[in-house]
Amino acid sequence: MAREKKADKFVRALAVAERMNSHYGEAACALHYTTPFTLTIAVLLSAQTTDAGVNRVTPELFVKYGTPQAMAQADPEDIARIIRSIGFYRTKAKNCIACAQMIMSDFGGEVPRDMDQMQKLPGVGRKTANVVLNEAFGIVEGIAVDTHVFRIAHKLKFAGPSADTPAKTEEALLSLYPREYWGPINHQWVLFGRETCIARRPKCADCFINDLCPSCPKDLIGNRGNPQERPSGLERWHPIPKTTPSSVKTLRCLSKINERLLSSNNRGKAVS
After folding, report:
1. Which domains does the chain carry?
2. What is the pLDDT of residues 109-147, one digit of tens each?
3. How far is residue 221's CA from residue 219's CA, in Å, rounded to a whole number?
4. Among 36, 11, 210, 33, which residue's Cα sits nearest to residue 132?
5. Distance of CA 136 to CAs 40, 129, 167, 198, Å?
6. Alpha-helix runs per DSSP H in 25-163
7. N or C end of the chain, less CB within 10 A?
8. Can you list the pairs that 230-234 forms with residues at least 24 positions away whose Cβ atoms lie under 8 Å?
């Protein structure tokens, strides 16, 4: 298979984004929360656990320990008891308390609104920080790469084989998409990963972006709906908009500008 040109990948990436927006709109966070602090704790708990599993334990947890002040003074065994149905509950219980204590001691009882400061909190990595900053404060510093976003980015060939970690995959996506596209990606792709691009049994025949996905078997492209009404030949469902040489040149320039801005913004900062 011929290597895809950067401008063509950029056009395809924007087409994927447009269809995601059309299909999911402004997808909401699946975790239940009421404040930036409860969101931080919910995302912390969601590591290697389903959002549904987290939502089952947080009502009791947040009634008792819904503020940094309350959780900072909590008994680790009591929190472990409440969240014992989710994975790594003892470690997460300790992190919840340590996180609350640092918020109280270092940040005046408020969740910090800064990527570097967020990542100082125990149990909070870049993914959690991205989700909280975007969801709670409307601050977009990157793209939260969880297992769904990681898998989909590689299925779509937006991240290459060398992007073998969430951090490297995020770098690949940030260099591909202009900043205004970063915010919706996590929520939309998580829903897409749960509903369609399922890890073990992807529903390629029913996928609304299958003609944009290099990983989709060619005989399934466009095979949505009634078999008698399936398009043939080069006809596809929601085809990529045709581009003229001038528009491709414009897109290539935009892509280069995006890379330069990203490089300038991240100079001296490692994605971790």
Report:
1. 36-137 (1.10.340.30)
2. 999 999 999 999 999 999 999 999 999 999 999 999 999
3. 6
4. 36
5. 9, 10, 22, 28
6. 36-45, 51-65, 68-72, 76-82, 89-106, 115-118, 126-137, 147-155
7. N
8. none
